[in-house]
Design brief:
By secondary structure, the chain is of the alpha/beta class. Helices cover about 40% and strands about 15% of the residues. The strands form three sheets. It has a seven-stranded mixed sheet, sandwiched between helices. A four-stranded antiparallel sheet has the order 9-10-13-12. The structure holds pyridoxal-5'-phosphate.
């Protein structure tokens, strides 16, 4: 372990992004936070932005703020997200949750693919997306069937598995670009090309990818995507999600939720709906201004650090962790539940241990002087380590490994029960 200690110190020393740790809020408690893929940390800039929006805009200017500041906010943020995902500003809508945006796109895609009945996804996908598909089939598209691809190794899905099920009856493929369970990253361009051969639509869920891996939706020939902003984009709890529809696809599909903010002239209060053309037609109701203001703080710090440097560090971090896991942790019963090839994964690593749940508890509530370490747990026995290159250090990873060894060697997990809190 001593060589790793030195290595961690050296890597931190040469880390071009190390100053960004101070761009985030740190409380008094010494804390190693490895759960940025569930809820990103609070950027300091966000505190000021929220304060300003509340006091100066809402407080003093009231309704006048709509024209003075708020009406252009979504577009300004869309341009920033577009930069991160490799799309044009007029292909990004920001608002609503990822789940609701996924509903809009899945409905629109199925509606456009009349006469085709198959929907393909996988058993490692984020359940909310699968629930929405089930709801669409139960309520609206009753002749459709959902085919779920099963992973052979519990981590990855092969292109050949998609190829085997894809046919001219396939309407829609729905995949997370980076799987929340295993961190496996689908080869986006290859999947899109495969689907295009059968004229099937693809919706990508970028929630575990945006801010963690390089994205180029336009050049990867993606036409529809959704994503979350409260993870690696540090937008805050329940931050508004984003939705992407390529210019070409905008000509073909329409949002199923016809609200006044998607109307061509919302303030004419017409009784009949006339959709705004383009991406803005995917808006439904009033944008959440306070949450958008918070999101801007997160996007700004990420763009300032530079997405390329960020992805480089993220990949370096997952490789460093992998090496320590393989060489130091396997004898303690831990194994990698993420792909071994770093080109095939996102910025988190999933570890398996039969005592995974109680080990997670021991990390979060240490007895004595050990640091508090917050990872994330997924049943039945997986510990997820989210590496956020903006604020995590290589030393954080070294200390995690040291603690994991200590907890297992001293059977510290026996101090904890098997009871689970509501959100872990
Ligand atoms: C976190 C996450 C979501 C979040 O959905 P919300 O509706 O915004 O809560 C969706 N999909 C994936 C893959 C996620 O990881």
């Amino acid at each position: 372990m001593t060589t790793y200690l030195k290595q961690a110190a050296d890597l931190d020393q040469n880390d071009q992004l190390k100053r960004f740790k101070q761009a985030f809020y740190h409380g008094d408690e010494p804390l190693i936070y490895l759960d940025g893929n569930s809820l990103g940390m609070l950027p300091m800039a966000t505190l000021q932005k929220i304060q300003h929006t509340i006091e100066e805009q809402w407080g003093k200017r009231l309704i006048r703020s709509w024209n003075e500041s708020w009406i252009g906010l979504q577009k300004r943020l869309a341009a920033k997200i577009a930069n991160i995902v490799g799309a044009r500003q007029d292909e990004i809508f920001i608002g609503d949750s990822t789940s609701v945006n996924f509903y809009k796109l899945a409905f629109a895609a199925l509606n456009q693919q009349q006469g085709k009945h198959q929907i393909i996804s996988d058993t490692l996908n984020f359940p909310s997306d699968l629930y929405i598909i089930q709801g669409l089939i139960a309520n609206t598209f009753q002749n459709h069937q959902l085919t779920l691809l099963e992973s052979k190794d519990g981590m990855t899905i092969g292109l050949e598995q998609i190829e085997a099920r894809l046919n001219h009856d396939t309407a829609l493929l729905s995949f997370s670009h980076v799987l929340f369970r295993s961190a496996f990253k689908y080869p986006m361009l290859e999947v899109n090309r495969l689907a295009a051969e059968f004229d099937a639509s693809v919706i990508w869920d970028l929630s575990h990818a945006a801010g963690a891996v390089p994205l180029s939706l336009n050049s990867d020939e993606a036409h529809m995507a959704v994503g979350c902003t409260y993870k690696y984009l540090n937008g805050g709890p329940g931050a508004p999600a984003f939705l992407y529809v390529s210019k070409a696809m905008q000509e073909k599909i329409q949002s199923p939720v016809w609200g006044w903010f998607g109307h061509a002239q919302p303030f004419s209060f017409d009784l009949a709906y006339h959709a705004l053309p383009g991406i803005e037609g995917f808006a439904a109701g009033t944008p959440p201004i306070l949450s958008l203001a918070a999101l801007e703080g997160g996007l700004d710090v990420l763009l300032e650090a530079g997405p390329d440097r960020l992805y480089q560090k993220a990949s370096q971090m997952t490789r460093f962790l992998q090496q320590m896991v393989e060489e130091e942790l396997s004898k303690y019963g831990f194994s990698m539940a993420s792909p071994a090839d770093h080109n095939q994964r996102g910025s988190h690593i999933v570890l398996h241990h039969s005592e995974g749940f109680r080990i997670t508890k021991a990390l979060i509530e240490p007895d004595g002087k050990a640091p508090v370490i917050i990872p994330d747990f997924r049943p039945p026995s997986f510990i997820r380590i989210g590496m956020a290159p903006l604020y995590n250090s290589f030393m954080d990873l070294y200390l995690l490994i040291e603690r994991l060894i200590q907890i297992v060697e001293h059977e510290e997990y026996n101090l904890f029960d098997h009871e689970r809190a509501t959100i872990t």
